[in-house]
Amino acid sequence: MASDLQGTAKDHIDLCDMALKLLPKLAGLSSLQQSARPTIWHTDLHMGNIFVSEQDHSHIVSFIDWQHRPISPLFQQARWPVFLSPPDDYALGPRHPELSSDFENFDPHDKEVALFEKERADASKAYEIATYLNNRDTYVALWKVDQPVREFFRRIGDTWDDGMVPLQMCILKICETWGQLGFSDPCPLDLSVRDVETFNQRSIKYKQ
């Protein structure tokens, strides 16, 4: 990693000072409070890690590969099971996934892809609705905690390993959308024009 992306010890301390100005307000968000309980979650839940009964394939008998699974707040743990992750154009909420209106004009290959993506979306929708009905706290953790807030708490302790850019971009996004996050009072962190330019320039370089 380039030295200007890794930063000096002082750079990391200054960045953490910025984060600490936001932390008390973010920690008080109702969606975060509702989904902050300590939780152990299998973060690699794919078909190979699920054992089912030989007599009844709908009956799960065990999960394997639990090593290195941490206990963390629910909003940091909750995620789609690998085999139920939705396609890119998936829409949350009470909307049934549908094929494109011009599906009949697709060539055979594109039709096959569209049907596969529709099947994925149907499975994802079933999981989303079942989560809403049976596990409301997980539903809130997955879909009501804003992504920059979730990433903020994930990145705040990892700047030395991952570099400063991921946390910088979380901070920038949070400051830019402060009112949309539900706050009526001013953001406690006032980023300068230079801070914003520096964060954006580093983000471009980091992605390269």
Describe the structure concisely for a colleague.
The protein is mainly alpha-helical and 208 residues long.
Mean of all residue-level pLDDT scores: 91
The side-by-side strand order for the widest beta sheet comes to 1-4
Distance between the termini: 11 Å
Query: Which stretches are poorly predicted, pLDDT < 50 over at least 5 residues?
Result: none
- Helix/strand-derived category reads mainly alpha
Give the ordered list of helices and strands. HHHEEEEHHHHHHH
Rg, Å, rounded: 21 Å
Main β sheet profile: 2 strands, antiparallel
Shape: globular
Helical amount among residues, as a percent range?
Answer: 40-55%
**Total strand segments:** 4
Count of helical stretches:
10
Strand coverage percent: 5-15%
What does this protein structure show overall?
There is one protein chain. The chain is mainly alpha-helical and 208 residues long. The mean pLDDT is 91. The protein has helices spanning 3-6, 9-27, 30-34, 74-77, 108-134, 136-143, 147-155, 159-162, 165-176, 193-207, and strands at 38-40, 50-52, 60-63, 71-73. The strands form 2 sheets. A two-stranded antiparallel ribbon has the order 1-4. Strands 2-3 form a two-stranded antiparallel sheet. The protein is built from 10 helices and 4 strands. The chain starts with a helix and ends with a helix.
Features:
about 210 residues; 4 strands; two-stranded antiparallel sheet; mainly alpha
